[in-house]
Design goal:
The complex is a heterodimer of chains A (276) and B (95). Chain A contains eleven helices and four strands. Chain A is an alpha+beta fold. By secondary structure, chain B is mainly alpha-helical. Chain B has one domain: Winged helix-like DNA-binding domain superfamily/Winged helix DNA-binding domain (Arc Repressor Mutant, subunit A). Helices cover 64% and strands 6% of the residues of chain B. Chain B has four helices and two strands; from the N terminus they run αααββα. Chain B has a two-stranded antiparallel sheet with strand order 1-2. In chain B, helix 1 (4-12) crosses helix 2 and helix 1 (4-12) crosses helix 3. Chain B is elongated. The chains are: A alpha+beta (276), B mainly alpha (95). Chain A binds chain B through residues 12, 16, 18-24, 26-27, 29, 32-33, 36-41, 43-44, and chain B through 18-20, 23, 35-41, 43-44, 59-62.
Chain lengths: 276, 95
């Protein structure tokens, strides 16, 4: 409980500390009261903080939370192989054949059983997950436009990922020019990206909290941003926005609008306070 | 009805009280137990708004008094609650 009291701002403790301690002595606090005091202290701190301090603290909290999550998330490794196809005309048929044979339920069930992949999951779920994690893509490389096939597989165990790619390449007639290796570093999670997202989310949350009194302006800016994101793109490039790009453009525009709106509300409020 | 600020104002309307006395009184008349953090959060807000003020005491247990502005605020709140309560009772009677 003493620690919880120390969470209150020093100025608050100087004013109310003695009588608050007297209250706690009289009432004999229960276990739940520690949380109540800590919550009260946090609320009191937030009330005494400046907007910029609150925003930066929430940003930091978001970054730390995501950094912890990034450490706890199971890493995923990707192993890959490059196969050379003799003729570019064979590329399509080779790709089709590989997808038919290597990605068939029977083949994948065999690999799952042999490599002991996805323990604890039903065969159907394991096959579905494996299909999502296998990527077979055609490519034309170099000046001679040489045809290649790229096969990759993602799995939490680097050595198992390599062995699966080896198994998959065995189904192709094409020459393996770059065989699979056990990757040393995971491809997921992207830790710097996760921390950056946590930081950005915390900053945005803090900004929206501080600008909550001007929420109609913030919302309006968000909607304007979404419309500008979609139609501004069409106007600037003079062509129709592809269906797949509409949603990302709208969301990006909305977030940018909300951000600018919140900053504008806070800036205006600050100016009003300075002039009084 | 468990807004801590109204509960504290209602308690002080009866007479000056310190934190623990307010807490006990609120349990008695409203059946609500205010946590220490919640109670002092309400006391801090009410004092900042000028609705209550501390009264002289040599003890660590600081009593508080309802100010004229606090009494006016409580009267307004109670009138609002009564309006809502009357309307709700009438509607329940009609149903």
């Amino acid at each position: 409980m003493r620690l919880a009291i120390r969470l209150y701002p020093a100025a608050w403790r100087a004013r109310y500390g003695d009588e608050f301690r007297a209250l706690l002595e009289d009432m004999k606090p229960a276990r739940g009261d520690v949380w109540n005091v800590a919550k009260g202290a946090l609320h009191m701190r937030i009330l005494t903080w400046s907007s910029w301090r609150l925003i930066s603290t929430l940003g930091l909290a978001g970054a730390i939370t995501m950094a912890v999550a990034a450490v706890l998330v199971q890493p995923v490794y990707e192993s890959g192989a490059v196969l050379r196809v003799v003729n570019s005309s064979d590329l399509r048929s080779e790709l089709g054949e590989l997808r038919t044979t290597a990605l068939s339920r029977k083949t994948l069930a065999g690999i799952i059983a042999a490599e002991k992949l996805y323990p604890g999951e039903t065969e159907t779920r394991a096959i579905a997950r494996m299909q999502r994690n296998i990527l077979i893509t055609p490519a034309l490389s170099g000046e001679g436009r040489l045809p290649f096939l790229l096969i990759s597989f993602r799995y939490p165990d680097a050595r198992q990922a390599r062995r699966v790619v080896e198994d998959l390449t065995a189904f192709s007639q094409a020459e393996v020019i770059d065989g699979p290796v056990a990757p040393g570093r995971p491809v997921l999670p992207n830790r710097p990206l996760m921390v950056a997202v946590g930081l950005a989310a915390g900053l945005l949350l803090g900004l929206l909290y501080c600008a909550r009194s001007g929420w109609p302006v913030v919302l309006l800016c968000g909607v304007a941003g979404a419309l500008l994101g979609v139609y501004g793109f069409a106007l600037a490039w003079g062509r129709h926005v592809p269906q797949a790009a509409t949603r990302p453009l709208a969301i990006t525009g909305f977030l940018a609008g909300v951000l600018l709106g919140a900053v504008a509300v806070m800036w205006r409020r600050r100016k009003a306070v300075a002039s009084t | 009805m468990n807004d801590p600020t109204i509960l504290v104002l209602a308690s002080l309307a009866e007479g000056d009280k310190h934190g623990y006395a307010i807490m006990e009184d609120v349990v008695r008349f409203a059946g609500v137990r205010l946590g220490p953090g919640t109670l002092y959060g309400a006391i801090t807000r009410l004092e900042q708004r000028g609705w209550i003020r501390p009264v002289g005491s040599g003890d660590r247990r600081q009593p508080y008094k309802l100010t004229a502005a606090g009494r006016k605020c409580l009267e307004e709140q109670v009138a609002g609650i009564e309006r809502v309560s009357r309307a709700a009772r009438e509607r329940l009677g009609q149903a």
